[in-house]
Amino acid sequence: MSPRWMNPNCSRPAAGRRVATIGLLALQGAFDAHGRALRAIGAETVEVRLPDTLNGVDGLVIPGGESTTLLLLLKEYGFDRAIRDFVDSGRPVLATCMGVILLARSVTGPEQESLGLLNVGVARNAYGRQVESFESEGLVDGRPFPMVFIRAPRITEVGDDVEVIGSCNDEPVMVRQGNILGATFHPELSGDCRVHEMLVTMAAADKGTM
Ligand code: GLN
Question: What total of structural domains would you count in the chain?
């Protein structure tokens, strides 16, 4: 599916608008499409392959991919600690699909270690084998949003400190907890930039450039 970046929900950056620099965790997975979405709305992007690179970014995307593989890579490169520190610094994180699995408090299907930074429980690959990937229309902030699910997890528990900001078929699919946004779908593939706008707005506000 080719993103439709002419979507009216993608605002072009105003001339002279100072925007944020967003890091794309680029160890594995679908970081490239996030980069295109972010650049389409005027953000700068940096591929993050080593923890030190996080020092120079105002926000971070943890993309979709394969969480078991990524977990091993995160530990090998010291990202488990670095991502914790990044979240503690108050800078915003957008986690999609695998990213939600990595940040969740608990993971089932099968059970797996996770960073426990987002107070949700998730079940991996929970939409069943025969329907591993599908498109649907859900709601983000009460407005229709095109959603692409690729071997997506289901959010099975939502902690008190977590706000559900996106749903599909009456199930939670996007949450916010402080500076963390988590979506089980792939906003980078639908051509609708509003989720990326949220991240950039949070990053720029944090940086004091809005
Ligand atoms: N199924 C993957 C996992 O469990 C996540 C899929 C995705 O990120 N698109 O790790």
Answer: 1
